[in-house]
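W.,

You were right to be curious about this one. When I first looked at the sequence I had no strong expectations either way, so I just let the prediction run and decided to look at it fresh. Below is the sequence, 668 residues in total, followed by the output.
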Amino acid sequence: MSEAGPSPIVPGSQAPHSRPVLWLISLVAVTLSLFQLYSAGIEPLGLFYQRSIHLALIMMLAFLMFPVFGPRHRRGLVGGAIDLVFFAGAVITGGYLVLYLDEIINRAGFWSRTDIVIGCIATVTVLEASRRAVGLGMTIIGILAILYAFAGPRGELPWLGQFLPGILEHRGYNLDRLVGQLYLGQEGIFGLPMGVAATYIFIFVLFGAFLEITGAGKFFIDLAYAATGRQRGGPAKAAVIASAGMGSISGSAIANVVTTGAFTIPLMKRLGYKPHQAGGIEAAASTGGQIMPPLMGAGAFLIAEYTRMPYLDVVKVSILPAIMYFSTVYLFVHIIALKQGMQGMTRSELPQMRDVMGAGWHFLLPLAVLVWLLVMNMSPMRVGYYAILTMLAVAAARFAVWFLFIAPREGQRVTGETLREAVKSGLVKLVGGLELGARNAVAVSMACAVAGIIVGVVGLTGLGLKFSAMMMAFSGGNLLLALVMVLLASLVLGMGLPVTASYIVLIVLVGPALTAEFGVPLLIAHLVVFWYSQDSNVTPPIALAGFAGAAIAGAKPMDTGFQAWKFAKGLYLIPLFMVFNPEIIMGGPLPLLVWSALTAFLALGAFAAALEGYLFTRMSAPVRLVLLPAIVAVFYPSLVAEVVGAAVMALALVGNWLASRREVVAAG
């Protein structure tokens, strides 16, 4: 192995490390990957054991990879001492729970002084590791959440509660109660976000690393180029379509990101998309898989159960909104390809499909195994484990065939020495893949750890329930405002809950108000809440699907989260269109259905163009400003307003096309 080992993809990890630190990074990274493989496929561990060991190893790796004074500065004596202290804090964070878990559970709620001290060390260590690996923004949000928990008459900082608006006031919590929530319970640092990171996000990041190490990544890149290389943004468009199918089956936007994203994100980066754009596109597309019939994750079954409607009816009415969503993401991909000047390649520049398949068809086997096991409803973590084993088996078999049969025919002698060198090279690649996977997972795991702090405070203070009640009260009978409030409430509640759980909680809280007070049809109310429950996957600061995409893309989690939020705008607009144009769900005269569908597609296309400032060519600021009220008019329940809005949008888009034709003529 070279002195530096495999190059990490995680941003900011290019620090000038000494040789002992490099070896220690390799040791911790390989240990982490082997631990994850063991727990994924051989011996599943309990919740706290899995998450605490994972977090301890991740933080140890973070403090080794990211020096305290930044990546461009050597540690020095002071920096090394600080890093050593935090490294010890990482060991203590995980080690204490592993060693004393039974005793901690037995005294649940009656924490010892040692429990509280270790919990404080763990919280500070997590925040510092996040600052280094993710950035200062996420750490500040975590600190603000802690200060909010302390603000109140019974809290550690009672004076701070005076500055909170009345509806956000709470009793306040002391240090013991908060630490118990954040470190010693299941709703804080070791809550759902960390559970997601410690199970299938890591295992599929590791799968992506082995794709890169074994050469399978190059095969899929060549395959995508052969199939879509002549189109603008071809691989990104393929990612959108693939995610539509895979996401409906997988039942998880994050699982969708880490399965399809392992193939599609590297393709997009090679084509010219920036890393955070590639991760954001995949996150937005994968989130759409949850609203794509026939399965819609598990949503279709839940909606059918709650509304007492036949499952097939729920699926049928969900097809058009899902197509609208994916059309919007697809258009964003196309516009970015145009803006950045991505050109389709000529046939002579592209690999031939026959040659690509002949050289690497066997790399399709891990993908086939992956899809088959997902369809068989196996745990995504176990699916990733078997996908990695299949990948390694395929790589070994491929090399054995070449070494034993092809090399001798090409005049290369097969001796004991060459065999030893081949085995040594294979082991070096194996270790390199284990190390690379662990390095690439650091940022996303630390982002999820801080997300756990936020979720813990939300649960402790009752902020989620307050938001739900507050949003409905503040709407004052205005339906549009009520829907915005529901969206905000879904974001807060969805921070720590899976989509299905978030949907269930939210529909219980706001569903009756939407149907009884605002007259929204029952099925539409459920669809709106279900769509909005997806937003925590793509909405910072808790964009879990965006964080998973960032881990694969090697981008900053928050940057990727904001990109996913932009590309997933259909997630917010289409439910509004359902409410104000109920015929697209509830049915109606055919001309009205056709008109509503056409205006919806036109409005979504105009919105994407106005947001990006580009469609066929660059769009001037006045035109973009004119498009906004025209888009709003299409949502307004008045035929005259809809016609005027549609006409304005059509004129603006046709004018943009004519401008692009004039530019082509002027350019000769």
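Here's what jumped out at me. The two ends are 54 Å apart (CA to CA). And, maybe more interesting for your project: Residues 89 and 444 are 20 Å apart (CA to CA).

Coffee later to discuss?

I.
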